[in-house]
Design goal:
Elements: H1 5-29, H2 39-59, H3 62-80, H4 94-112, H5 117-122, H6 127-134
Helix pairs in contact: 1-2, 1-3, 2-3, 2-4, 3-4
């Protein structure tokens, strides 16, 4: 990615804010269940995974995906704790623990995913391979 530093910093800030919004939405909605099925947790994990994958694929930048993931994790941690008045938004339940563990795992998988896998499957060289061949 050959963009200027201010553009990249702006992208990271926007990614962080979007991650905070998704993390907040997932933290609040994860506890919704329809009978025995944890619909809120499933949708929160799917939505967060889709957002992280979209940011990583559209920006071709691990740092943008990491900024999004950090926003999600910060929102989850801030709103999972005890508030200044002693109130708790997210009580400690099995769904809350699953959500708290799922977010960092999703972030780690998306950020650590190798860049060349999709290119190799399509038969096109990965960006690093293309640079090596042109030299």
């Amino acid at each position: 990615m050959n963009s200027s530093l201010p553009a990249r910093l702006g992208t990271w800030v926007v990614a962080l804010v979007v991650g905070i919004v998704y993390g907040l939405a997932g933290t609040i909605a994860h506890s919704f269940s329809w009978g025995p099925l944890p619909i809120g947790l499933i949708l929160a994990i799917l939505g967060s995974a889709a957002l992280l994958a979209a940011v990583r694929l559209l920006t071709s930048d691990r740092w943008s995906a990491l900024a999004t993931g950090l926003g999600m994790m910060v929102a989850t941690l801030v709103f999972s704790g005890r508030g200044p008045g002693g109130s708790v938004i997210v009580p400690q339940t099995s769904l809350a623990i699953a959500w708290t563990i799922a977010v960092p795992i999703l972030v780690a998988v998306v950020v650590a995913w190798p860049e060349g896998i999709a290119s190799a499957r399509a038969g096109t060289p990965a960006p690093a391979d293309a640079d090596a061949r042109s030299n």
